[in-house]
Amino acid sequence: MDYSKPTLIVICGPNGAGKSTYIQSMLPVEFEGIWSFDRDMTRVQFEKILMGQGIKASELFRQATAMMEQKLLVEMRKAIKLKDHFVLETPLSHPDYWAYIDLFERNGYQIQLNYLCLDKVSDCLARVEQRVIEGGHYVEPSTIKGVYEKNLQHINDYKDTFALIELYDGMAIPTLLARIENNEVTFATKQALKKNWIRKRLPLLGGAIQSFLS
Fold first, then answer.
1. Sequence-separated (6 or more) residues with CB below 8 Å from residue 23
2. What's the whole-model pTM score?
3. How confident is the model over 48-69, as pLDDT tens digits?
4. Which domains does the chain have, with CATH numbers?
């Protein structure tokens, strides 16, 4: 990957995978000092501001989300104007968020996906439950399941969008399992094929990884 070109790195993964915690460890050295836009963290910050203004609890999420999205658009447009690299943590599970990726692509950016995943939906549920106990934000189990499944579906269906895909195991400290650049596997570990989410849910990439390791 030639990072002399403007690059968008999309950090994605299911709820509870540890994206916010480990995001910096999944960035190339060329991205040192690049600010990462964390949608969840930014929304929570706006929720706290709105709470201080006396906004009703029933309105907090909606208003904070709108404020977060507006700030994100401002930051994206600023980066594009300057041709700066940008790091975006966002779900691929919702088609509306692909508009952000399209915005960068239309402006000449190369797109990289760093995907951090857990083995099962139950692992995500347990992580989110623990996060709530520690004061973090709650996510409905049905939403967690939907994000887990749809993220993988969209990666499988739209993998050609990404000039580079890095797949990480998030069960402990994020570990790189495979790297696919311009649809060619350039690195893979045997552990990658032990992951059902790669072998069964990303069959195109899983098949390419298997061929690379054979």
1. 11, 36, 38, 87, 89
2. 0.90
3. 999 888 888 888 888 998 999 9
4. 7-213 (3.40.50.300)
